[in-house]
Amino acid sequence: MDIGSLSSFKPERRIVAVLFGDIKGFTTLSEFLDPEDLQELIDSIFGKFKEIIEKNGGYLDKFIGDAVMAVFGAPISHGDDARRAIITAISMQNFLEEVNAQRGTDIKMRIGINVGEALWSSIAGEKPTVLGDTVNVAQRIQDIAEPGKIYVTDSVVNLTFQNFYFKDVGNVRVKGREEPVRVFEVVDEKPGESEFSIRGRFKTPFVGREEEIRKLEKWLLEKLVKPGIHFAEITGEAGIGKTRLCSEFKGKILITLPEVKVSFFKCDPIKQLPLYAFRKILEDLLSALMPHAPKTKENLSQFLQKNYALSKIDADILGTKIFNFLNREMQFSDELMKEFLSSMLGLFELLVKDIGKFVVFLDDCQFIDSESKYFLNELSKKVSLGSGVVLCISREPLGYFPVDFTIELKGLGEDFVKKVCRTVLQVDVNSISEDFIVRMLEKTKGNPYFVEELIYFLRDKGLLEFNPLRIRAEEYEIPETVTGLLVSSVDSLPEPLREILKAASVIGKHFWRGVLESISGKTVGDELNELEREGFIISQEISFIRGDFEYIFKNELLREAVYSLMTKKEREKLHRLVAQQLEKIEDKDEHMLYMIAYHYEKAGDLMDATRYYEEAGDIAFSKGFYSYALNCYRNLKETPENVYKIAQCLEALGDFENALNLLNSNIGKLDDASLLKLRYEILLSGIYEKLSKFEEAFKYLEEAVNSTNPEISSYSNYKKAWVYWRIGDHENARRYVNISIEIIERYGLSTWDALKTLGADFNLLGNIEQVNDNYEKAISYYERAKSIFEEIGELTARAKILINLSQLYLNLWKLDVAESYLQEALSVIKNSGSRFLLAVVMHNLGRVYFNKRDLEKAKNYYEEARKIFLDLKLPGYVAESSINLANIYLELFDFEKGKKLLDEVVLSYPDLQPSRIGIIFFLSGVLNYRLGKFKEAKESFIKSEEIFAKLNDNKKLFQVRVYRAVLECLLGDCDSAVIFLKEAKELEGSFELGLRKTEAFLNGAIVEYICRGKINYLDFETLSSLRSFVEKGSDEMRISWLAVYSILGGKVEDEYRSLIHEEPLKLLIDFSVFPKIKDQKSRGYLFGMLKERGSHLLLEFLKKLN
């Protein structure tokens, strides 16, 4: 194999298959053979070995005495080099058997093969060779092999298990290695030509190709009714799923079109012979027409005489030709080829006629031999009987068949990745993180084989975290199974293009022409255009570096495969040049600074790398891009200052457990009087507050609030105010937030940190005003906070303001405005990586859609939010989302599910805030009431009433006492019911009208009517004012309002039917307002419906009315 000029030779790191073979028996032969005869024998054997190695695409590295070393994958990769090495080994063993049979000798060879990374290099200007552990292991495997056997490592088996049968030899200790090596013996080659060989370790889930199957089926049905041979192409890169698509399609044909003859053949680049593809097709057609007769000369002659009216002489001649052709005993000259093809064309037309309809799948058609190509083309022109379809499966368009239908396969998406994870890793698809999906698709571009191999690789290397599924490492090598395929495509390029591609791979997945030209020292515009035409790179419309042209590698795995070819020394040199070029760019943001740091790190310049990583992290954190900042800081040395920065990011991202562990394990190393220790304590306080551990939160603020440092003091007073806010003590919250503001103003603080604290102060004041229904004041404070955060570029804090504004507009029932604020917040939060804030936004979107009565959408948002809160271990937020979900289940009449959810919360989090426990007991009471469990409902209501009384929460007490009145009414104790209504009446003026108050008013009026036959609880004017809230409630609330409205003298017209959305409930208007329904069946249906929905009070009310 020509390896070019050694003067321009560049070492490369390559994935190679290394074969070592050692001949046994020469020593015995030398005792009775003349030295010259022995030399002739050795020359003939090694000469044949050289021929076999090079025929199979290998590189003869050296002969050493009676041993041979061959390399597959260097200097050229073929994508199947391990297979080529084994085929070479089998051919060498077979040749020795022939020698022994001819000469009566007993020469045997032991062979060892290993696959892995090695350095392809020239030592002292000599012929190139491969160096490294991969080579040493191959030689040691050969040493332990038995004569006549081929031993391989498990890495070889992983790449070739579809092609060969293996016998497990076991773990073997070899010289020079501490760990044992798993060894297998090659038993035989698998006969894989007649079936689909799907790439990969298992049959991947077949998803995302339904449309392609539909198109193929439509085209096939059209062509099978037309005489002649028709061609289609299915194209796409290696591993994209072409063969799998055809396998599924073949299965469908066999089921739906049993009369169609279906064949599959694979064009093999190693075993290619003239007319190979045509030979396989002819053999299969003959097997179909003479299934029980061996294809001997005599049988073929008889078949031709009987079926095609040939004379015995003509049948014998043609039968002999076919026999010799099928058994590869025919040598073709150009003249003989033309004559043979001419005779075959006529025969083939007759065979096709008898077969009727047939489909041929021709896989790896890019390797088809030129003679088969010519013959199939001629066939398509001349065969007019029967109907045949040839589906050519190829990596690229072929351009030499008369194709009238093409499908180009692209990568698959998220659903495929999830299903592979479920199959390979046995995980619930809901536990797969979004980050995992994104990284997999970025690496592989959805190539099914690459996805599968990468997931196996990450699993086997222990690089996965579960619940949720994530990748542990930011960087990792790529599987050898994938590298060979990708490098083989790169090796097909001219050397100048390969070098440009290698330099580009150092810059990154995204690279820029100007930077590339600066590090390579030459213009590369034409070369980049050529690489884009070849499909290796893609030009981008917008460039990250202003004034430069940006390109991107087709996928990240391709870039990594190209990068893997370079030596460490070459990589370091180019990384340094890239960093120096990027440093020249002005106005560098966090992304550019990170790139510079990365390239200096790869160049080994750790001091410069550290400086740029820290600067990038600080800028990212100030913008609220916490994930990005964390990634930067984790590249720094672990000092107390850097630990604090990492913990800040973890806290902002909601990873409280790891933040706590990090802070607690380092705080003891700090001086008691240091400002850094106070910052540690403030951060610990904030984490404990989020975990609803308020005593610990206050404890860690004791020193900081009295600090002589005004920034520390103002910030810690704000944090103390926030803790008071969280426990519902608004008076103290206002007090401490005002202290914080006063400190900032007194000292004229204007640093970034001080302004951030001031913005947080105004945000908290907005919250306090909002909860007290002072909406105008709240908006004023929120706007001041938002303005500060925008001024300092604190995007995530700005997102929090947007969330608070959305809550305010939710309270004002301006749902579209609330939703717009949440969507804006969502776009900001996605860049920050904060799962906590993402969950808060989802939770609030659930509230929006609940109020819009889109209950399914609301449920989905609440469930997603709750899932994140559970994952982050935030009891208070889990409880809040559970309460809202239980309300959804209440509305959807799934009372058992709601009750179960609340019971789980109480059991899991017994230390929740009293206010939340009270709400849970109240809601449990409502659900039990709906389920008809009045005793259990009463117990829950009593518990909630005790809690709300202690908290002086009159708003909640009002609702509880109305429900207690409802229960007593239904239990027949009208006196108690009226007492509870009276107590509720005394509380109703303590808060403004809303949906829940409206519901309580109507329930109270209905209880009074059932118990006293009249309604004094509500007057007509108050009832009329409730209508705007009623229209936002459920159909049952609207029916209750209409009935009470009618009783109080309101005139109810038929137009009021439009208030009710559910068709069956429209009848209730007639039943409750106009007692028209006399039909017992209709009455029974309506009463049954209300009972099933747990509408016990409304049911009792309707009975009273009628």
TrEMBL record:
Kindly list the GO molecular function terms attached to this UniProt entry. adenylate cyclase activity; ATP binding
SUPFAM superfamilies, alphabetized: Nucleotide cyclase, P-loop containing nucleoside triphosphate hydrolases, TPR-like
* Residues in TPR repeats: 839-872
SMART domains from the UniProt entry: CYCc (SM00044), TPR (SM00028)
The Guanylate cyclase domain extends over 17-142
Q: Which GO terms describe its cellular component?
A: cytoplasm
The alphabetized UniProt keywords are:
ATP-binding, Nucleotide-binding, TPR repeat
List GO BP terms, alphabetically: cyclic nucleotide biosynthetic process; intracellular signal transduction
What name is this protein filed under? Tetratricopeptide repeat protein
